[in-house]
């Protein structure tokens, strides 16, 4: 792992970006295992995939993390809302559509 200032060429930069991307994919795959478990628990409790209060809590959390790290909270929110939508769709694939569950 090199710090950005230690990179001397575009090949160095690209290698580090590829390394980070692999780590992000690994973390997304790990996150998906928790989404799958959430679907199991929600099924047992007859809960919908989308719980709006939780969606907004997650968004508020990542916006705060982004701001603390010098990233645009708006950009991170946009990315996470896509991730949340994907996660909810994954849960609905296991649970069935929310329209058939208690809300």
UniProtKB/TrEMBL annotation:
<dbReference type="InterPro" id="IPR002701">
    <property type="entry name" value="CM_II_prokaryot"/>
</dbReference>
<protein>
    <recommendedName>
        <fullName>chorismate mutase</fullName>
        <ecNumber>5.4.99.5</ecNumber>
    </recommendedName>
</protein>
<feature type="binding site">
    <location>
        <position position="14"/>
    </location>
    <ligand>
        <name>substrate</name>
    </ligand>
</feature>
<dbReference type="GO" id="GO:0016835">
    <property type="term" value="F:carbon-oxygen lyase activity"/>
</dbReference>
<keyword id="KW-0413">Isomerase</keyword>
<feature type="binding site">
    <location>
        <position position="31"/>
    </location>
    <ligand>
        <name>substrate</name>
    </ligand>
</feature>
<dbReference type="Pfam" id="PF01817">
    <property type="entry name" value="CM_2"/>
</dbReference>
<dbReference type="InterPro" id="IPR036979">
    <property type="entry name" value="CM_dom_sf"/>
</dbReference>
<dbReference type="InterPro" id="IPR008241">
    <property type="entry name" value="Isochorismate_pyruvate-lyase"/>
</dbReference>
<dbReference type="InterPro" id="IPR036263">
    <property type="entry name" value="Chorismate_II_sf"/>
</dbReference>
<dbReference type="GO" id="GO:0004106">
    <property type="term" value="F:chorismate mutase activity"/>
</dbReference>
<dbReference type="GO" id="GO:0009697">
    <property type="term" value="P:salicylic acid biosynthetic process"/>
</dbReference>
<dbReference type="GO" id="GO:0046417">
    <property type="term" value="P:chorismate metabolic process"/>
</dbReference>
<dbReference type="InterPro" id="IPR051331">
    <property type="entry name" value="Chorismate_mutase-related"/>
</dbReference>
<feature type="binding site">
    <location>
        <position position="42"/>
    </location>
    <ligand>
        <name>substrate</name>
    </ligand>
</feature>
<feature type="binding site">
    <location>
        <position position="91"/>
    </location>
    <ligand>
        <name>substrate</name>
    </ligand>
</feature>
<feature type="domain" description="Chorismate mutase">
    <location>
        <begin position="4"/>
        <end position="95"/>
    </location>
</feature>
